Amino acid sequence: MQHLPLLELAREFDAPLYVYNAQTIESQYKRLTNAFSKVNSLKINYAVKALSNVAILQLFEKLGSGLDTVSIQEVQLGLHAGFSPDRIIYTPNGVSFEELEQAAQLGVQINIDNLSVLEHFGQVHPKVPVCIRINPHVMAGGNTNISVGHIDSKFGISIHQLPHILRIVENTGMHINGIHMHTGSDILDIEVFLYAAEILFDTAKHFKELDFLDFGSGFKVPYKKDDIETNVEELGKKLSKRFNEFQKEYGRDLTLAFEPGKFLVSEAGFFLAKVNVVKQTTSTVFAGIDSGFNHLIRPMFYGSQHHIENLSHPKGKERFYTIVGYICETDTFASNRRIAEIKEGDILCFHNAGAYCFSMSSNYNSRFKPAEVLWKDGKGILIRQRETFDDLLRNQILL
After folding, report:
1. 263 phi and psi, to 5 degrees?
2. Do 291 and 204 share a structural domain?
3. Given the DSSP bridges, would you call strands 212-214 and 176-180 parallel, antiparallel or unpaired?
4. Which annotated residues bind substrate (predicted)?
């Protein structure tokens, strides 16, 4: 994989800084499409929520991707980045009906996961094609916050409520053109995913005019050395075979859709931060960086591990450090982690920082959000400017 001059980029654009490798994004996209090359019609809808910078969206548009969106604002970002409405699927949860109306006006594919909303939408817009998100009641995902297909999840319409769905469709005469599921993120057991897929196939048999089946995503990426990941090649081989069989059973050509986010951008991202202080206590050596969970909340929110390396002294003697931020709360990125000896002023690099890092950042403690840089064609391109004090004051009004 292409080498990135991360230390030089930190010097040029300052830290903290997010850097994304375009080549890695392209490679992951091709890896997924190659895994399902036996399917005649495949659609990859990039999950915007993972990393929503419009330059990244433009990159996916050029690759031929569609978009998976969860808010009307993400829909608008996709349109702004050059996507046509037919390449965008909108899968909200708990939004106002006015937002659904707006999506219908924009002409994007709508995906509904609520019986009452389905009935209301069918009564008002019976001719607008709609996808239905079912909840297969299959537990998957590496953390309770990202396991969304289990029986107590707020997402999707229960598979046991299929008779209600069919009654609504019959009564309203609405057109159902897709069936969707998403079990959760960090899927490892392919057999569990294939089991959930059979539930989707069985559901699809009740709808005669489908154009696509959307299997969600949740492919796990490796976060540390020798970490396990989803074997997408094996999944591609097994699911493609079963999908092609189902198309014959169904009697109509269908599109196989996925909506990966983390899988496509996580490994492409690096977060660079400067060490402000090295502080030794009675039991711990802290390395305090010029950042906090306002920039990288995943370790605190999900308990995720990001590999951390010292770019300034990569060959130094390894010592144990607890990496912490400057937020006025406990914000620990890593505890007792072996890292090459750290000195004040060193630049640390957090790997796998492409997904749900900048997109979940905030201005907590009135701190600025960092800049974003895309490494493409051998050069660093600034795709988001670092915030300033004027950005903090924007939209605020003095008494």
Report:
1. -60, -35
2. no
3. parallel
4. 298, 302, 329, 356
Same domain, 273 and 259: no
Pick from 290, 269, 302: nearest CA to 53: 269
pLDDT of residue 225: 74
- Domain boundary among the residues 244, 264, 284 is at 264
Q: How many domains does the chain have?
A: 2
Q: Which of 131, 328, 349, 357 is catalytic?
A: 328
CATH number of 38's domain: 3.20.20.10
* CATH value at residue 379: 2.40.37.10
Element (H, E) at 74: helix 72-80
- 12 assigned ligand-binding residue: no
Q: What angle do CA 257, 260, 262 make, to 5 degrees?
A: 175
Q: Around 87, how many Cα atoms within 13 Å sit in the side-chain half-sphere?
A: 22
Residue (of 72, 117, 113, 127) closest to 97 by Cα position: 117
Burial class (CB in 10 A: 0-12, 13-18, 19+), 190: middle
Burial class (CB in 10 A: 0-12, 13-18, 19+), 133: buried
Q: Is 328 annotated in the active site? A: yes
Q: Is 107 annotated as a binding residue?
A: no
pLDDT in the model for residue 187: 66
Any known ligand binding at 218? yes
pLDDT averaged per 10 residues, the chain (length 399): 85 98 98 97 98 98 98 98 98 95 97 96 96 84 43 82 96 97 73 89 96 91 79 94 97 96 96 97 96 95 92 96 95 96 98 96 97 97 98 97
Q: Across the strands, what pairs with 379?
A: 376
Q: Does one domain contain both 336 and 250?
A: no
Region of residue 352 (phi > 0: left; psi between -120 and 50: alpha; otherwise: beta): left
Is residue 356 part of an annotated ligand binding site?
A: yes
- Within 8 A by CB and 6+ apart from 184, the residues are 139, 140, 141, 142, 146, 147, 148, 149, 150, 218
Query: Has 337 been labeled as part of a binding site?
Result: no
Domain end (from 203, 231, 264): 264
Q: Distance (Å, rounded) from C-alpha 375 to C-alpha 327?
A: 29
Report CA Rg, the chain: 23
